[in-house]
Amino acid sequence: MQPISKPSLMQRLYIPLMLAPVVIILATLFLGSILVALLQSFGYAPLYGINEFPTLKHYQSLFALPGFWRSVAYTFYYAVVPTVIGTALSIYLALLLRKRFKGIKAFNYIYKLPLMIPYLVGVALTIVLFTNGGIIARFLFAIGLIESTRDFPRILYSHSGLGIMIVYLWKQIPFSTLIIYSVLMGLGKESEEAALTLGASRWQTFWHVTLPQIMPGIVSATIIVFAFNFGSFEVPFILGGGFPNTLPVEAWRAFDDADYSRRLRAMAIVMFISFISSAVLITYLALYRRFERQRGRV
Length: 298
Fold this sequence. Notes:
Order of helices and strands: HEEHHHHHHHHHHH
Helix content: over 70%
Radius of gyration: 25 Å
Number of strands: 2
CATH class of the domain at 69-242: Mainly Alpha
CATH architecture of the domain at 69-242: Orthogonal Bundle
Structural class: mainly alpha
């Protein structure tokens, strides 16, 4: 048997060199924008004729704003709740898609349709359907369930965030379902069938066999969905309850102010959003890795 020759230096560097142009461009754009935002949040903004670096006054004024911590709470609320609800529904749909039932081929196409439609279209559909003068309110009035369209519950433009969550769930359930379903298809049913054969109930099989196996897909989907929800601007801006609103909306309001000095506060908000969301996601990943270590998979 001939000894296996070691790859040459060029062979080892081939893939990194091929990826280098894209990685350099993406890293420059991402890290460069973060660096500019960081410097401006600390008072270095020669573009606006301001150079107070280093200073913490923009962070101090940010934390002292009336309603700021309520904005933080709303941002977490609008990000976490639809992520949790959407993930639970996505797991159910992914498990449903593995079963054979009449119309499954059509359903496989229909549930993916929101992935091809922009968020703003979903916002428009939500307004048409769920406002007090919308289609649902008029239908309920027509069949006599409410005396006036004004009696329809207020779903949009309130701090309950129901309208915001409807749009998020409409768009993100198909996304998470697709990821989890792909993981399920790669696993097969052998482990579940073995558990059922050994006497486990369907719930025990799901909790102890299926769920741990699809956790990588669940974690990947929830990270992407939470990060988007936490930094989303357009949906809370249109459907939110007004002041105080989410942090991205407050950042836009500060950046849109005619007073350029307030844009540094906007950058402070951006950096605060980046820090908080990164801390949450790193903690989440650490807990997931701990879970995998306990199962002996890491």
